[in-house]
Amino acid sequence: SANGTPDKRALNSLEMYTTAFARQIIGRNPAVRVTPKSGSSLKVTGHQLGLAVNKTFNDIGIASEWADAVRESFVGIGCCVYGLTHSGNTVEIEGQKVPLGRPFGRSIPADDLVLDMNATKIAPEVMDYVGHYHIMPLASLRKSGIADQSQVAKLSPMVSLRRRGARGSSSRASELGHGEGTRFNLRDKVELLDLAIPDQQIVITVDAEMSCDRPIMVRRMSGDGVIPYDFLWYTKIAGNLLPLPPLSNPQDLQIAMNVIFNKVIRDASEAKNLIYAQSSARRDAERVMKAPNGAVVTGMNPPEMLAQLRFRGADQSDMAFVMQ
After folding, report:
1. In the 8-state DSSP scheme, what is residue 186?
2. pLDDT band for position 165 (50/70/90)?
């Protein structure tokens, strides 16, 4: 515009694009069906097991978390972390100790994601580490059976949830995002950093402020070469670790469409309808201007003495381009 401010985005084509795209690739909540062998007496038990597993999927909200990861991948990398929440108890199944716990899956925002930027690609075999920041109640750490309590004792509760400014964001942006005052916390919380190290097949948890001299928790990863993170991307770029998100190309199209759409709106609002009259037909022109809509005006000079002029207005070709 004339004063240098950007025009409004009257047409949000990105929202329409993402909505249509998300409907095609976001699946429903996963479900299982347990079917015992024909004639088995475990038919009822198998049905109850299936109901219990499906209820767990619904309770942890895995479908919504995966959907958030898909939407995050439209503008960057959609990342999910998954695993088990457990207290260190295990059960032996076929000679192997399996940790007891509740499965979880969460979408990781881009601001909380930590990647090995020296890696050539996002893959366990070439990355030294991958992790994410998260906030956890301090009481949960003190009750945990796998946390090093000597390190937990060194942790200081967060006085507020302003943690973005400490990782590169400006202090002004932090204030705008969280308000001018200190946020009141009902429970003491700490910010932690989970790091998965594929070479050692472990996940370590450290204090985000690095105030401890050793990890707070160390857990083994199940499966060789498997990390508890899944990534979604659509267009890989040679020589770049991060991919090209799907919305990077339609964003240029949205800008172009809104430039034309704003022009159509301006042309329509600035349209003028005038009546041109020759000097000898001035009185007739005044009678026409004062006449109400649908009135019959008599005793006028020939119609050629008056002419209707139209300036500006929405261009039909511009409107057709936007509608396509």
Report:
1. S
2. very low
Main-chain phi, psi angles of 51, to 5 degrees: -65, -40
**CA pair distance 227, 79, nearest whole angstrom:** 12
pLDDT, tens digit (0-9, with 9 covering 90-100), for 53-77: 888 888 877 788 778 878 777 877 7
Nearest to 190 by CA among 143, 149, 134: 134
Higher pLDDT, 185 or 128: 128
Region 149-171 average pLDDT: 66
Element (H, E) at 38: none
Q: Minimal CA–CA distance to 198: which of 115, 273, 256, 136?
A: 115
Lowest mean pLDDT among 54-63, 97-106, 144-153: 97-106
- Secondary structure class of 194 (helix, strand, coil): strand
d(CA 304, CA 277): 9
Cα 83 vs. chain centroid, distance in angstroms? Answer: 22
Say if CB 241 and CB 122 are below 8 A apart.
yes
- Spatial distance between the Cα atoms of 301 and 304, rounded to a whole number of angstroms: 8
Residue type, 129: Y
At residue 115, what are phi and psi to the nearest 5 degrees? Answer: -125, 150
User: What is the rounded distance in angstroms from the CA atom of residue 192 to the CA atom of residue 183?
Assistant: 19
Beta bridge partners of 306: 277
Residue 174 has pLDDT above 60, yes or no: no
Half-sphere exposure of residue 211, counting CA atoms within 13 Å on the CB side? 14
Give the CA distances from residue 217 to residues 79, 153, 167, 204, 240, in Å, rounded to whole numbers and listed in that order.
22, 13, 23, 6, 32
Q: What's the mean pLDDT when you consider all of the chain?
A: 77
The pair of structure tokens assigned to 211 is 């105030």
Q: Are strands 130-137 and 113-115 parallel, antiparallel or unpaired?
A: antiparallel
- The per-residue pLDDT for 172 is 37
Q: Extract the tokens encoding 314.
A: 């929405």
